[in-house]
């Protein structure tokens, strides 16, 4: 079993139910650590963690640090945990080591060959594709992903293969904790300006991330994305080995995209790599997903996996929860759920959805995420949503932010052109409104990073009540 860092042998995780925290807890428990934690409410992650031996409390109180007689060797927090949190305050008072989630994950990476996947968009899907492809090659990687793999229902795993695949989150700059052997950058487009402040600062943090690649390591970058290609050029100038992928690459080791053919069940991307033409089948719609698969292929080859095994594994990839996830159907109306919450993601996914819809219309229920993002990108969101036929814009899911006067879903809805649009501020009316709009053969997608994910089953139930369509 991989040696545990001393400070993680008894870990208390504040917010243990979150995607990142629950993944770290899974790996810690698999490696024999004592794990305790707390969260504001129950989550589906708790069942597995408790079965593995975690002590989990609902509600956050200083006494939760006493789940084990000897107390925690470290308290693990995310950026979202405020200094006023009673458990964090108690840890500070007691002199307990406090680690950011990324620091804990970096400790778990020690002793492995590490692949970190970064980018404004596509990092969860690309990380998941690489993980599944390596598993198909029987290399048993450890992994930590921001979403649950459809194949296993898990977001993390302790493997025995000596490899570690991790999604690298740029939102708070914490990915600068990692020192990967292989780094993938899918794209660089300003986001999370509530933390980084300016577009220039956001780009700069990616430059620093690439400088964290260990000596002799590899950067895999998408040449079709201008900022990512510029990042690769700067890295090469500093002596980093680079492989690019995309339509316009010219290097001898680059993966050149020759064509993409959409299909009802996904698509096929043909690439040229080192003089060989390869067809990569992807079971998810959209050329953006095919490009993610190419990035995963290059990273997998660098990690020592065989080409044929990777190609077969990528073809078998069944997706990630909340990434164009099929929720069910009512009659001939299909309902999907997707996590897209940035204008570029929304546009790319809706173009892909258009292929999947065939002759049916595309009906999207979009929930903006964060007041700051809504205010900054309202026009871009409106343009992207215009790719659908029917659009329902919900109110903003504020998450960690306080409401901002004048910033509502209407800010986006009022600018949508090319589609029929409605603004619905009452969340509990959204499913009924969607059912009112649906016609036989339509494809419905709920979209956003908030609780809009709850609406898919409600829409199906309402359509069933009406006999299969609106």
Characterization of the model:
This protein has 3 domains: 6-100, Rossmann fold; 111-316, Mur-like, catalytic domain (UDP-N-acetylmuramoyl-L-alanine:D-glutamate ligase, 3-Layer(aba) Sandwich), CATH 3.40.1190; 325-465, Protein-Tyrosine Phosphatase, Chain A (Alpha-Beta Complex). It is 34% helix and 23% strand. It is built from 15 helices and 21 strands. The strands form 3 sheets. A 10-stranded mixed sheet has the order 8-7-9-6-10-11-12-13-14-15, with helices on both faces. A hairpin with a 2-residue loop joins strand 13 and strand 14 (266-273). The radius of gyration is 22 Å and the shape is globular. The protein starts with 9 loop residues before the first strand and ends in a 5-residue tail after the last helix. The model has no long low-confidence stretch (mean pLDDT 89).
Q: Specify the CATH architecture of the largest domain.
A: 3-Layer(aba) Sandwich
Instruction: Please tell me the overall pLDDT.
Output: 89
With strands numbered from the N-terminus, the spatial order across the biggest sheet is 8-7-9-6-10-11-12-13-14-15
- Could you name the CATH homologous superfamily of the largest domain? Mur-like, catalytic domain
Shape call: globular
User: The CATH topology of the largest domain, please?
Assistant: UDP-N-acetylmuramoyl-L-alanine:D-glutamate ligase
Overall radius of gyration: 22 Å
Beta-strand proportion = 15-25%
Report low-confidence residues grouped into runs of 5 or more.
none
Please, how many domains?
3
Largest sheet: 10 strands, mixed
């Amino acid at each position: 079993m991989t040696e545990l860092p001393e400070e993680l042998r008894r870990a208390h995780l504040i917010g243990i139910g979150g995607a990142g925290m629950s993944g770290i807890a899974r790996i810690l428990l698999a490696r024999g650590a004592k794990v305790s934690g707390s969260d504001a409410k129950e989550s589906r992650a708790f069942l597995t963690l408790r079965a593995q031996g975690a002590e989990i409390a609902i509600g956050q109180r200083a006494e939760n640090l006493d789940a084990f007689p000897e107390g925690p060797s470290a308290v693990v927090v995310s950026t979202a945990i405020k200094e006023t949190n009673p458990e964090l305050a108690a840890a500070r008072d007691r002199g307990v080591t406090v680690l950011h989630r990324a620091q804990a994950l970096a400790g778990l990476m020690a002793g492995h060959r590490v692949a970190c996947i970064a980018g404004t968009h596509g990092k969860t899907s690309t990380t998941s594709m690489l993980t599944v492809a390596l598993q198909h090659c029987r290399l048993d990687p450890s992994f930590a992903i921001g979403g649950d793999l459809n194949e296993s229902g898990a977001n993390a795993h302790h493997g025995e293969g000596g490899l570690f695949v991790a999604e690298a989150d740029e939102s708070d700059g914490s990915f600068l904790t990692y020192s990967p052997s292989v780094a993938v950058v899918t794209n660089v487009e300003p986001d999370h300006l509530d933390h980084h402040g300016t577009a220039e600062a956001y780009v700069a943090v990616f430059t620093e991330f690439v400088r964290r690649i260990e000596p002799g390591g590899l950067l895999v970058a998408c040449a079709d994305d201008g900022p990512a290609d510029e990042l690769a050029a700067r890295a090469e100038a500093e002596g980093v080995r680079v492989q690019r992928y995309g339509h316009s690459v010219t290097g001898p080791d680059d993966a050149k995209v020759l064509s993409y053919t959409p299909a009802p069940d996904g698509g096929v991307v043909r690439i040229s790599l080192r003089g060989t033409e390869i067809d990569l089948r992807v079971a998810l719609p959209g050329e953006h997903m095919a490009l993610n698969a190419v990035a995963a292929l290059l990273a997998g080859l660098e990690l020592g996996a065989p080409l044929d095994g990777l190609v077969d594994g990528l073809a078998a990839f069944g997706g990630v929860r909340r990434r164009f996830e099929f929720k069910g159907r009512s009659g001939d109306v299909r309902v999907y759920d997707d996590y897209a919450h940035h204008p570029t993601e929304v546009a790319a996914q809706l173009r892909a959805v258009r292929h999947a819809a065939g002759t049916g219309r595309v009906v999207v229920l979009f929930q903006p995420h964060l007041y700051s993002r809504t205010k900054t990108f309202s026009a871009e969101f409106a343009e992207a949503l215009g790719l659908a036929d029917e659009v329902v814009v919900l109110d903003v899911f504020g998450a960690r932010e306080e409401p901002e006067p004048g910033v509502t879903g209407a800010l986006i809805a009022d600018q949508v052109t090319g589609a029929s649009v409605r603004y619905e501020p009452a969340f509990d009316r959204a499913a009924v409104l969607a059912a009112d709009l649906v016609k036989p053969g339509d494809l419905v997608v709920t979209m956003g990073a908030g609780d809009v994910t709850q609406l898919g089953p409600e829409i199906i139930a309402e359509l069933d009540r009406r006999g299969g369509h609106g």
